[in-house]
Amino acid sequence: MMTITIQGSNATTRPATTQNPNPATNQDIDRAARDFSEAIRNRVQQRVNEARIERAVKQGVSVNVQGEEPVVVPTAPPEPGSHVITMKGPNGTETFTIPPNAFEDTIPPQAVDISIAFFLMLAVIIIGTPLARAFARRMDRKSSGSPQISGEISSQLAQLSQSVDAIALEVERISEGQRFTTRLLSEQKQALTTGANR
Question: Which residue range forms the structural domain that includes residue 120?
Answer without folding.
Answer: 107-142
